[in-house]
Structures are given as structure tokens and as C-alpha cells.
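thread from #wetlab-drylab

HS: before we spend reagent money on co-crystallization trials with iron/sulfur cluster, can we at least see a predicted complex? here's what I'd submit
DV: go for it
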Amino acid sequence: MFRVSQYMRELAQAEASGTYHTPALRGGGTAPGPVVIWNLIRRCNLTCKHCYSISADHEYAGELSTPEVFTVMDDLKAFRVPVLILSGGEPLMRHDIFEIAARAPRR
Ligand code: SF4
């Protein structure tokens, strides 16, 4: 299991000692990367008071295109991400969400 607190502690120690290695490279490079929760879109058609993404039901500038999402997915594969959670905003408001979701297990 990847623990963010442990990872951050290791980064701080590596920075202090002048060395650096990622958790994925420990143990001969076979360890999985971290689980990723990916906020694919900020737009959301709900208005929860506790909203963590300050979302609203309109377009936001800077959202990734489908090809850009696929490029990031390729990077996540290279990082050996074992689990990808698609979130938002409301990810179902992306026109390409099913295309993205179908591609994820293949990557
Ligand atoms: S992004 Fe999540 S928390 Fe925010 S309004 Fe939409 S459903 Fe609610």
C-alpha cells in the first residue's frame, strides 16, 4: 500500500540528504505506483454546500481534451498506477467519460 505521509517523509529525507528515489523504484522496480483519484472535470450540476472543488454548472477554462487525458493515462501507466478513480466535479458531464473509462483498464 502506498502511504502519502510515508512518501512525503521520504521525500523530505531525500531532499535533506541530497538523494532521491521514488517508492516505485524500491525493491528492484516492481512496486506499484500510487492510487490516483483524478478530478477529470470541474463542472458539476449539483450544488453541495460541502463542495471541495468549488464546482458549478458551467464550463471552466483549462479542462483537458480527450487526447490530453489519454496522454496523462499513458503517464499513469508508466508510473504503474494500480487503481485510477475518475472523479470531478461531475465526471459524467464529460462527453468522453465512457471512452476514458473504457480505456483505463486497457492501460
Ligand atoms: S463536485 Fe461533488 S461535492 Fe461538488 S457540487 Fe458536485 S457532487 Fe457536490
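DV: The radius of gyration is 17 Å.
HS: ok that's useful, forwarding to the group
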